[in-house]
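Q: I have 406 residues here and want to know how they pack in 3D. Can you give me a structure?
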Amino acid sequence: MTKIKKIIITTLASIVGVFVILFAVVAIMWRNEISSIMSIEMLVDGSNAEHGAPVYKMDVKGGYYFDEFIEQGGVSSDQELINFIVGNLTKGIIPISLEAPTIGCSSFTAQGSDGTRYFGRNYDFSKTTAMIVETNPGNGRYRSISSVDLQFLGLTDGQKIEGIMDKVISLASVYVPLDGINEKGVSCGIYMTYQGPSDNVVSTDQQTERPDITSTTMLRMVLDYADSVDKAIELIQKYDLHDSASTSFHYMIADSTGKSAIVEWINGTDKTDTDGSKRELKVIYNNDDAYVGEKEGQNDFQYVTNFIVSPNYYEDDSEKGGFDRYNKIEEMINPNGTNTSGVITKQQGLDILETVGRRKWDANNGASDSNSITVWSCLYDLTNKTVTWVSNEQFHDSSSVFSFSL
């Protein structure tokens, strides 16, 4: 009996030892991912807000393998991005999917009377779950705060994050930012352009010898590596862009010096731009855009919605998505033609975002389309590296307005 007891005890001790070793190995391999998951918190429940949805925040630990992503030459498709994320962030264990909804958005740059630089952004869609992602990757890369629509990762119709699977999938949100700011005061946003004749959207799909990058990973690259608009453009010029989910995008980038740029990929006109592989990068700077239009040339600030800004792309203005909101933003910043520098107060910046928010805009202008809600509004302060983040157009509800700082 004594020998049997010794055998049992030894066996149990061996089993426990194996589990301890396995646990230690898992803890070491997944330490950053585990810490990131544990940081997830709900900021807005969404249950009682009109057409609302939950809002979460996650502090991403470690470098999330983005240096490795860049070193391998990026990826040229959503599937390649999925393979990279699954192979690294989820260690090949938990699959994910990437989807891009049809979205409508708007942005502007402006400045305060003291020279503070602003970058405003509305993200328009419908009921969807949002994630605010904060990173501090180190290794020469910059801290950032960015906004993510978790529908890109399969959490549709305003789902809550429930269970470990949803939390692990949420780790991929660091690869799908839609707007953000970094510690150098560089801000960037992404906006659909719906390029192609008769609503047949054609994705940008450049095919040269350059390395490859997809829509949201390009924005992540800007946040992680760019300390100015010029550096962001320098980085973007090195890559072939491959738009995600069979749609098309353009970007606006701004920095704390007051410089900004709208970044587009086009070939010909909207009626002839049917081959995404032939598109070329066009950069429209705020201090060199008189060729776009008279008002654009006079104003030092920039603004963007969901149409190609480069001139002569469309036959007439009726083809420009969000052209009414585009004009309203300019009118609110420079109402009488004398505020060409775009000097506003912080409150005025928030008022602009509220005015062109989809519920108010549609109600006041008799407009209506599938993008019926502004899911979030951000006013980025590029000088002080802060953000005012508003959920679900609830500008006057303190429980839906958040402030973050780098």
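Q: Anything worth noting?
A: The domain at 39-405 is CATH 3.60.60.10 (Penicillin V Acylase; Chain A). The CA atoms of residues 101 and 152 lie 7 Å apart.
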